[in-house]
Every structure is written in structure tokens, then in C-alpha cells.
């Protein structure tokens, strides 16, 4: 049974999540309609029916609201990975981290809108690349902690580039076949790679 403060906290968190999602959806639609430079934070506030201040309570600026929150993984999942789990097989365990990183971002409509916005604006593409590089560095550090300092950095980067390739391929598949979830497409990309390399 949940205590009253827990219930209130969960409701607040759910409302914050919904507001952030609505802001991102509106920002993506504005970007698709007018281009990234064709709208302002004031335009976004009007479209989302919130105040300008509310936008800045959630996001630092236009790029952040379009791209959404950064990649986050539950610390317990990271700890399990660093300790050698959950399967004991490095690449399979990296896949578990990848699933965790995309767990709350699997809204196909949002993914497709984000993909369209990013491929139409070189600055957004560069920002996505920067975010992915930061995430890759974090994943590489987790691999180093798990496997030890002697683990070749090139091998860690190769594993992470494979993950990024699976993400990219899953985005393409999601655009072509919106009837399946992003997670299903991601898993299909991994399965196809395993078959090809077997």
C-alpha cells in the first residue's frame, strides 16, 4: 500500500512527465511546420497553453525542448551492469542498458516527429550527435568499470557504435513500419545482425 505522500509525489511526477511530453510534442510540430528557426519560446508557450516561465521550468532552451530530456538509465541497472549482470554476457548486458535508456521514449509518433525534425535541420542533427557521444562516453566508462582498465577502448567504442547503428536502423524501421513499436524494431535489428554474423 502506498502512503499519501508517495501517491502525491507519483501524481506530481506523472503530471510533470505529461507536461514535458506535451511541450516536446508542440516544439516538434512547430519545428516541422516552421523550421527550427521559425518559432520562439513564446510561440511554444502559446501552442502548449502554458506560460513562458513553465517552458523554462522544464527545459533550458529550444534545442532541449525539441530533443527532450537527456538519456538516463536507472542507477540500479547501471550498478547491476558494472557488477557483471544481468546475463554475464557483455553485449547482451549492453542491450539491457539500451532498452532501459529508451524505456520511456518509445512513443512511435514522437520518435517519427523527432526523426523528421532532426534530419531536416543540421544544427539539431549535430546536437543529437553530441548527446549520443556523451551517452556513449558514459556507456564506455561503465564497460571500463565492469571489464577493467585493460579492456581495449577501441573494442568498447565498437560495441557502442554497434548499439548506435541498431538505434539508427530501428528509427528507419519505425518510419517504414509504424505498426510495430520502436523496441520491437530495435530487437529485430539486433536479431538480424546476430543472424548475419552467425
Properties at a glance:
single chain; 198 residues; mainly alpha; Arc Repressor Mutant, subunit A; Tetracycline Repressor, domain 2; 2 domains; 10 helices; DNA-binding
Structure annotation, total helices: 10
CATH homologous superfamily descriptor of the largest domain:
Tetracycline Repressor, domain 2
Order of helices and strands: HHHHHHHHHH
Biggest pleated-sheet summary: none
Any low-confidence stretches, pLDDT <50, length ≥5?
none
CATH architecture of the largest domain: Orthogonal Bundle
Protein name: TetR/AcrR family transcriptional regulator
Domain HTH tetR-type: 17-77
InterPro entries: DNA-bd_HTH_TetR-type_CS, Homeodomain-like_sf, HTH-type_TetR-like_transc_reg, HTH_TetR
DNA-binding region: 40-59
Short description:
With 198 residues, the chain is mainly alpha-helical. It has helices spanning 4-34, 41-48, 52-58, 62-67, 75-82, 90-102, 108-119, 122-147, 153-176, 182-197.
Descriptive notes:
It is built from 10 helices and no strands. The chain starts with a helix and ends with a helix. The longest helix has 31 residues, at 4-34. The radius of gyration is 19 Å and the shape is globular. It has 2 domains: 4-66, Orthogonal Bundle (Arc Repressor Mutant, subunit A); 70-197, Orthogonal Bundle (Tetracycline Repressor, domain 2). It is mainly α.
Indicate the topology.
Elements (H helix, E strand, L loop, with lengths): L3 H31 L6 H8 L3 H7 L3 H6 L7 H8 L7 H13 L5 H12 L2 H26 L5 H24 L5 H16 L1
